[in-house]
Amino acid sequence: MDMRSTLDAQRAAFQAELPVSAATRKDRLKRAAAMIRDHADAFCDALSEDFGHRSREQSMVTDIAASIAPMKHAIKHLDRWMRPERRPVTFPLGLLGGKGWIEYQPKGVVGVIAPWNFPVQLVMAPIANIFAAGNRAMVKSSEFTARTAALFEEVCPQYFAADELAFFSGGPEVGKAFAELPFDHLIFTGATGIGKHILHAAADNLTPVTLELGGKSPVIVGKGANVRQATERVALGKMMNAGQICLAPDYMLVPDDQEQAVVDGLKAAVSTMYPTLLANPDYTSIVNDRHHQRLQDWLADAKAKGATIETVNPANEDFGASNTRKMPLHIVRNATDDMTVMQEEIFGPILPVRRYSGGVDTAIAEVNRRDRPLGLYYFGNDDTERRRVLDRTISGGVTLNDVIFHITNEELPFGGVGPSGMGAYHGHDGFKTFSHAKAVYRQPKINVAKLAGIMPPYGKSTTASAKRQMK
Q1: Phi/psi at 139 (nearest 5 deg)?
Q2: pLDDT per residue over 243-279, tens digit each?
Q3: What number of other Cβ atoms are within 10 A of residue 13's Cβ?
């Protein structure tokens, strides 16, 4: 089936099925989890093939287990999420017997446009919320991870009819056509520039859109921070998936007198986790030649404009002689605003470290003069300073004394703000994102319109009623 006929078939099946029972939703969630669990090894193989090399253990954690976890969470909480939500009724209608509540209904067919960096998890986590809300789904996979996309198309029909869940792959033309379909909701995860095109494509159909984008997620090292702990945790977040994470720490802001300690800590942490890189099965490659060259060009740009670049290569391996796309961590010191690494989301193992002086307000000002990021990370033990960072910066989410971890909690909404995205999902918030909150009001037997003086012919009671409401 082509994309449009699949959409029509899904919408017809959805309409015929209403209302979508909790049992049906749980069944789809269980089948989705089984699809990933049963083919976990095959997905890990496909991911490694797509990347050139990708850590199998990392894939098991970040793509397989992280896909199944939101399904289990949704199954556990679904009955509670589906309950109508009572709302108070405006005085005096509540006293007269009026009732108000919200019913969360599925929207219909949801389109999912998935990225290449976590091409299993960033498909299945939204689907957990989409199925929990009672919807059906169509997925456009990334052309950069073609083997993983092909595997989804191969295994999905073993678990789902095409009018429940369907996968499509292809390049930009397919993506454009997919975004232009009249979905009942569309979620896109990817680059900010592409997100703008997605929003334009969806506009003609007035399709509601959730955008999970990226941006330059900063790390602020503040008062009383444990530098060894902070650098170890930043290094872990930066080196996972070779920095190809939308929430990866993008640059660090450190007090003047701690810069060297931070650089030394990063080097020590990386050397401990990855004593070698080229043949290390734990370390992932850059996804393709274009992205690898982009990162090399940005390093050359920084160096040409005066940056000092320190390469963390513990075993002194010859990356130039290697035919892999593995790339060591490059710490960029003295990075300035005219360098590309301080203008664009890096999405790779490059980490600018910038100094600040004059207290945390200087670091806050640095963050605030850039686009609002998807994530922000603060390390420090000063309550007043931490509160100031939280109050004076705006970001999609925050992790304190670590990086990235706020995305792992299904009870917290995940989403961006401004150029880093719009809308949120995960857990109950995701259930609400993909549901229509339908307001229902039940009028009492008494003629409320007449009692309130709003039934013609108007008179003194009408004027009195208006005055009461205007007080």
Answers
A1: -125, 130
A2: 999 999 999 999 999 999 999 999 999 999 999 999 9
A3: 15
Strand 424-425 versus strand 414-415 pairing type: antiparallel
| Phi/psi of residue 229, nearest 5 degrees | -65, -45
C-alpha dihedral (330, 331, 337, 340), degrees to nearest 10:
10
Q: With contact defined as beta carbons under 8 Å apart, do 143 and 45 qualify?
A: no
Class of domain 218-414: alpha beta
Calculate Rg over the CA atoms of the chain: 26
Copy the structure tokens of residue 457.
Answer: 């012919």
In single-letter form, the type of residue at position 429 comes to D
The residues, ordered by sequence, that sit 6+ positions from 4 with a Cβ below 8 Å of its Cβ are 181
pTM of the predicted structure, to 2 decimals:
0.94
- Give the confidence band of 437 by pLDDT, cuts at 50, 70, 90: very high
Helix axes 360-368, 383-392, angle to 10 degrees: 20
Which ranges in the chain are annotated with CATH 3.40.309.10? Answer: 218-414
**Which residues does the annotation mark as catalytic?**
212, 246
How is residue 356 written in tokens?
């600040």
Round to whole Å and give the CA distance between 130 and 124: 9
Specify the CATH class of 3-213+421-437 in words: alpha beta
Cα separation, 94 vs 442, whole angstroms: 10
> Strand 251-255 and strand 218-221: pairing?
parallel
Q: Is the Cβ–Cβ distance between 179 and 152 less than 8 Å?
A: no
Q: Of how many residues is the chain composed?
A: 471
Block residue for tokens 């449009």: 4
Q: In the beta sheet, which residues pair with residue 310?
A: 331
For the record, the structure tokens of 456 come out as: 């013609």
Asked whether the predicted pLDDT for residue 55 surpasses 80, the reply is yes
Separation of alpha carbons 190 and 197, rounded Å:
11
Specify the residue for token string 């009732």: 99
Q: Where, residue-wise, is CATH 3.40.605.10 in the chain?
A: 3-213+421-437
Q: What is the pLDDT of residue 95?
A: 66
Q: Which of 118, 333, 101, 336 is nearest to 214 (CA)?
A: 118
Query: Angle at CA 126, nearest 5°, toward 121 and 130?
Result: 145
CA distance 117 to 54: 11
The one-letter amino acid at 235: A
Per-residue pLDDT tens over the stretch 314-355? 999 999 887 789 999 999 999 999 999 999 999 999 999 999
Query: What DSSP state is assigned to residue 451?
Result: H
* Cα–Cα dist 53/41, whole Å: 15
Give first-to-last CA distance, the chain, whole Å: 61
One-letter amino acid of 463: T
Rounded CA separation 56/44 (Å): 6
pLDDT tens per residue, range 366-377 = 999 999 999 999
Is residue 317 within 8 Å of 210, Cβ to Cβ? no
